[in-house]
Write a structure and sequence with these properties.
Largest sheet: 8 strands, mixed
Radius of gyration: 18 Å
Distance between the termini: 41 Å
Number of helices: 7
Shape: globular
Structural class: alpha+beta
Strand order of the largest sheet: 1-2-3-5-6-8-7-4
Order of helices and strands: HEHEEHEEHEHHEEH
Number of strands: 8
Amino acid sequence: MGPRPSRVFETLTRFSGIQRDLEDAGIQIKVGDDFQEYRAYRNNQADRGTIYPMFDVAKSYVDHTNGFWICGFDPNGELVHTQAVRLLDLSDMTLASHLHLHRHKYITPDSTPDPDQTFFTGPDALNTITGTVGYQGDFWLRAKGLAGPRSHGATALLSRFLLELTVAVWNPSFMFAFVPKPLAAKGAHLRYGYTHCEPGRWIGPDQQVTDEDYLIWMSRKDLAGSLAQAPLSSPRPARVETERPATASPTPLADLNSAANA
């Protein structure tokens, strides 16, 4: 038996409201599951690093069965936003074991002298997160133009859109992401809609700390409670730029899952 019609209607209503608010902020959303297309979008961004292995079809098996992506475009068709999600089958292991086996897909490039001997440790949740697990990453939102999309709540709306869609498609047991320590200290997990935030460290070959990322996560129950709340809305900006804005590099405030951001 599928979901109740009233529940489906509530979800569709939230989707339409979020999409309308994003359009008011000057962002047109595109959702896709062709990761060759996503790779092409990412490779055309000269101001960002290369796409990470988790979302790169040249390095990982990712398609419509275990992933999708969201891109946002300004009124001139310029790419101003990316994010993606992977569904992980951790039915026979914990997130701790997964990150141990697949650490190369999460380590920030050039952050350690030896990725083969670098491991993530710290959060207690690593040993309790299991089952079907969604991983949110590659979040980027251009800092300038669009009459300041971040100042109009676009970050929260874009993350909420992905979480809503992930639950509607897969209803995972858990969702997780990474944020760098400075952003976690400012409550970044709340901006992205997560209820738990735990400090973690990447430990290198000589037991040195090579990077510090916080694990942000939610259980299925947390997700249901969070999505039951009315989504944040963004006020309509007084003016949306229509001329082609200059390309700007993303600032750290745009980064969700920096350990998986290209």
